Amino acid sequence: MAIPSPVEPCDFTVFGGTGDLALRKLLPALYLRDRDGQLPDGFRVIGVSRHTADDDAYRAMVRDALTQHVSSADLDEAAVARLLARLHHVELDVEDVGAWHLLHARLKEGAASEDVIRVFYLAVAPGLFGTICEHLDEVGLATERSRVVLEKPMGSDLATARRVNEAVGRVFEESNIFRIDHYLGKESVQNLLVTRFANTFLEPLWNSHWVDHVQITAAESLGVGERGSYYDRSGALRDMVQNHLLQLLCLVAMEPPTYVDRETVRDEKLKVLQALRPMTPELVDRDVVAGQYAAGLCDGAPAKAYVDEVGQPSDTETFVALRTEVQNWRWAGVPFYLRTGKRLPERVSEIVVVFKEPPHAMFPHSEGPTEPNRLHIRVQPDEGMRLHMTAKEPGPGGIRLRPVSLDLSYAAAFGARSPDAYERLLMDVVRGNPTLFMRRDEVEAAWAWVAPILDRWSQPTHRPRRYPAGTNGPVAAATLLERDGRSWQETE
């Protein structure tokens, strides 16, 4: 397997360096990139937090995290030691103006040069984004070679998103701001662009003449767990639809860019967001379903209701299903159905493109079922694709039709471990490649589109429909498609 080209030396600073995201995702991702030879000499990782820990204590904490969150097959003691040697910790309350000299001194200490690339990953609450950026500027760490990474949520509505963007934008140029959506780093999501634009057979069919509808599902079998306090302020619409699902919709529906480059893909995604049918109060009532899981069975074990997990009465939605359209020449009249939820039967994220029936029945006396052609793009787990077709069953006599599938499993086809999304995205930040990150106008366009739904749901009469844990969501979600003569494509 070819080893990707290494990146430049970098000071990679993680605010929230002892938090769950850093220990569960970011530092394991950097370890795996280091193990595969992508982190050069001079690449330093600085964890910033209010935790009282010197470098040795922090390294011990990270070693434990790697043992928990990296498979034993991928752990190499020499690579672990190499990453730990890169690690440093700075104890800092980011709101304490007088303490910022500690970070400044650590970054200047042993720096390869004054113009070294510096990445500041803000794995903290969005309310601190502006404060951190302002102090980085004050101590001279926000330079042309500095990049800032914003972790979601980027605001809780359009107004707060704009405030966050304005606060960060006062310090950093847009080209140095990387708003991360880990879904865009998944292999299957990137491969969607290659499937569409590097193959000639699909693109002529990728329009309203041949596509009946599109379904995008992001299902989780787990409940809110330890994220209850955050989730109860957010809900499924903010947590999943406004970012992950709309980004997947954009990649499915976007026009071919002239070429895949830093801004061309993001330009085309923005056009899709701007073309989404506006949500009026009447359409919200008709085309959007909110649900909340009640007690039930998951994997054969009893599961608590959402309100019992968060420990208080709540009208926060844990499930959303909606119908929308992209109002442009290519997709006029084609419904896009989006669905996400917690405590569903299994964890799966998938895009299903359902094609129209053949315009003429050529085999009137055939036996066996016929089904529309479908392209399933599995985002997680077991990334891959499956194209459902109709074939003749072998044998003499009449024609017996049988649905069959052409399968592509990335693991089987390429025989290599598929890097985690964060592995790819973190290296793209260091390289300064923003293609897979959200631009400010994208974020704000997505918030503008969901705003009428949030407004409608803020009414006192709004109540999410209950569904038993371990089921596919409220009955109204199935009705959403049934009234159009369609049904959800459940995992096979």
UniProtKB/TrEMBL annotation:
Enzyme class: oxidoreductase
Biological pathway: Carbohydrate degradation; pentose phosphate pathway; D-ribulose 5-phosphate from D-glucose 6-phosphate (oxidative stage): step 1/3
Binding site for NADP(+): R50, D93, V94, K152
UniProt xrefs under PROSITE patterns: G6P_DEHYDROGENASE
Domain named Glucose-6-phosphate dehydrogenase NAD-binding: residues: 14-191
Catalytic activity, EC: 1.1.1.49
Catalytic residues of the enzyme: H244
Keywords: Carbohydrate metabolism, Glucose metabolism, NADP, Oxidoreductase
Domain Glucose-6-phosphate dehydrogenase C-terminal: from-to ranges: 193-489
Catalytic activity: D-glucose 6-phosphate + NADP(+) = 6-phospho-D-glucono-1,5-lactone + NADPH + H(+)
One matching Pfam family: G6PD_C
Binding residue positions for substrate: H182, K186, E220, D239, K342
Function: Catalyzes the oxidation of glucose 6-phosphate to 6-phosphogluconolactone.
Family statement: Belongs to the glucose-6-phosphate dehydrogenase family.
Protein name in UniProt: Glucose-6-phosphate 1-dehydrogenase
Biological source species: Nocardioides furvisabuli
